[in-house]
Amino acid sequence: MYGKAFAPEYRGALGELSVNSSLEEVLEKALEQRARAEQDGSALESAHAGLAVAEASRRLGRVAEAEDAWRKSYRAARRAGDEGAMAWAVWSGGTLARQRGALALARRLLALAAELAERGGDIVARGYSLAGLAETGRIQGDYRAVGELHEKLLAEARRRGEARHTVWALEGIAQMHRNTGSYDTALAMFEEAAAIAEQSDDARGHAWALRGIADVVSLRGETERALELLSRAERTCREMRLVSALAYNHKMRGNVLFRAGRHEEARDCYSGALEEFRAMGEPRGEALARLGLVKSLARLGRDGAETAAELDELSHTLGGFGLQHAREMVDKARAELGLVTAGAGTAA
């Protein structure tokens, strides 16, 4: 039903690159191709190569380089008069904005990318841009607004047999089910995503799906299985140099260990993830790792007043990203730690 996964963000002369190509390899080849295209005066090839530079840099956590690259790609695409290439560049910029926690900017850029893609007749770019909008809304906790879009994109991806997008949509919908307590449905969807990703040779999608499965089975008390799944995903992240995915993997390992009452190990995992997020300039991940670290330190005997003060700061920080469920996340932490009555907060 599904063919081999492909990476449409690698375009033009770089179109032969695999979805599983190491990011260092992609970056090296893209920089070389961009230099050749600029020397040859080919604006469109420069735009294509610049997009690959932007995406490899973003996934490697090199935020400044990614920002510069997507803007250069957009300017080259505009010189070439290619609205499809312009859409891909703006999609990359919107995805970077989401990664950096600038969710309002992400929505604006991704909406513009979808508009450019529609005008340029690039169906895939439009799909990726709409998917980006759906993911941004999901991260903000606006499930009612984006749930229907996720389902629509899943149906379209299944109909066209696009493995990578099917995996993405399944994971997004599964995450919403997980966050609203429908664990059986979430687990089934994460497992389907993992199976499709494995069959289509989508290593990145498989790693993210394993992380989702680990989260749900951990909630059921299956700690060792969850840790083994995360170890499998971590190997892929390291092989492909998926810096952001690796940091989120480590944060999830902290979650699993914390749930199991292994607070010292959890503290160490959260601390490592925190440094990884800081190094790549990903403030949303940094704030979530800090939340886990605060809870671990509290369980290890940290002063309650210090814990409460940091939770207040985190509530403000997470709220600043436009996360609708931020207050509930922090309130739940306060309740768990006995800093408020148990009924004061609800689960995110």
Q: Can you describe this structure?
A:
The protein is mainly alpha-helical and 348 residues long. Among the domains are: 1-120, Alpha Horseshoe (Serine Threonine Protein Phosphatase 5, Tetratricopeptide repeat), CATH 1.25.40.10; 242-348. The chain has 16 helices and no strands. Helix 4 (83-99) packs parallel to helix 6, helix 7 runs antiparallel to helix 8 and helix 10 runs antiparallel to helix 11. The radius of gyration is 20 Å and the shape is globular. The two termini are 36 Å apart. Residues 20-47 form a coiled coil. Pfam families: TPR_12 (PF13424). This is Tetratricopeptide repeat protein. Keywords: Coiled coil.
Q: Give the C-level CATH assignment of the domain at 1-120.
A: Mainly Alpha
Point out poorly predicted stretches: 341-348
The shape is globular
Q: What Rg do the Cα atoms give? A: 20 Å
- From N to C, what is the helix and strand string? HHHHHHHHHHHHHHHH
